[in-house]
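Design a sequence for this backbone.
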């Protein structure tokens, strides 16, 4: 009986060994758990920084609600702060639009100076530099 079991073990592929399978499962589960933990702790946002600044920015209501809870604001204070937040967002958007116009103007002026071959190289350089030149979400 013991000889038949030993022969059966020898015919099995090494990866079919229960110890190897359980070790692989344990390593896989530990990796999945640690990956989930790191993503929950904020690594996800660091890895995927391509998300637009607007989507990373908390909504007006979320900020106002946080202020209400943390600062124990009265109804009048909440309304006044809501107006300030609205004004700030409009001002910020206006500045962003001005920066976009400035970038566009500078780019078109540079393109007018370059010959067609240089324009092609310039466009390639700009696409490589785009992540570095993109407006950051300063906090």
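Sequence:
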């Amino acid at each position: 009986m013991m000889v038949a079991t030993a022969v059966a073990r020898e015919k099995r592929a090494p990866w079919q060994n229960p110890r190897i399978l359980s070790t692989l499962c344990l390593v896989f589960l530990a990796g999945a758990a640690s990956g989930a933990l790191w993503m929950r702790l904020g690594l996800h946002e660091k890895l995927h920084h391509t998300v637009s600044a607007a989507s990373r920015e908390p909504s007006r209501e979320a900020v106002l609600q946080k202020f209400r809870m943390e600062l124990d604001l009265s109804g009048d204070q909440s309304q006044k702060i809501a107006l300030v937040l609205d004004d700030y967002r409009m001002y910020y958007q206006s500045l962003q639009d001005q920066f976009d116009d400035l970038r566009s103007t500078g780019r078109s002026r540079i393109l007018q100076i370059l010959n067609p071959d240089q324009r092609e190289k310039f466009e390639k350089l700009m696409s490589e530099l785009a992540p570095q030149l993109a407006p950051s979400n300063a906090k």
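The CA atoms of residues 60 and 86 lie 8 Å apart.
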